[in-house]
Amino acid sequence: MAIIIDGKSLAKKTRENLKKECDELKLKGIKPKLAVIMVGDNSASKVYVRNKSRACEEIGIEYEEYLLEENITEEELINLIKNLNENKNINGILLQSPIPQNLDINQAFKAITYKKDVDGFTPTSIGKLTIGEDTFVSCTPYGIMKMFEEYKIDLTGKNVVIIGRSNIVGKPLIQCCLSENATVTVCHSRTKDLSEHTKRADVVIAAIGKSKFVTEDMVKEGAIIIDVGINRGEDGKLTGDVDFENVKEKASFITPVPGGVGPMTIAMLMNNVIKAAKEQNNQDSKF
Length: 287
Hints:
With 287 residues, the chain is an alpha/beta fold. Helices cover 41% and strands 15% of the residues. The strands form 3 sheets. The chain has a 6-stranded parallel beta sheet, sandwiched between helices. A 3-stranded parallel beta sheet has the order 3-2-4, with helices on both faces. β5, α7 and β6 (183-187) form a beta-alpha-beta unit.
């Protein structure tokens, strides 16, 4: 029976520590502030944005929201981002994805100044991560690495299989795991004999958005299972990319959905906002 990695309680502890840091910054006249941009009327995005707003409120981070019409032009979106780049009261800028298909999200991310890239999506952030420099790390991979740290899971020499190659999770995770001396394999929709890779893995990280895709027969005894997926079934319940009930009998560690990776993603966003506020005000500056 696996040890359940409790992302919810770890996120709570992280937020409590961040609140102390935020209070200390405010005593120095520094008020960390996050700007969130949402384009269109995506119901899932609304939930995520609301959760981020609540986390900011709890920690004491000031919060500003920009809700844009779906028919906004790319030029208008980028102009808003540029204005926020110049606004000294804003420490972090987050563009909530997805955005309408008529807009190029990569161009929008590129427009965000690196110093305010609290999502870790700009080419500069990704480049620095790749060569091992201090940077903003994408929030979901960062949260996963913090879970490994909290549960004293040493990745040195371990075979890590990541299922999914998105720019948001899969690709940054490669670098994060390599930096901890893991041997990393990335699997995706074109991978042949996927289960042959997962059966050999010491760690399986599933991030593909397919409900209960990873089954008990796909993992070896004692494997560590990290489930990034968030899928809503017809009954309205949330499920991950892993068949949790069956796989937990075989794994040594496993994250649940909900209550696993999700809360840590938001906690690491808050961490990055505090980091940005410090860097921009020459507090413990590393950039």
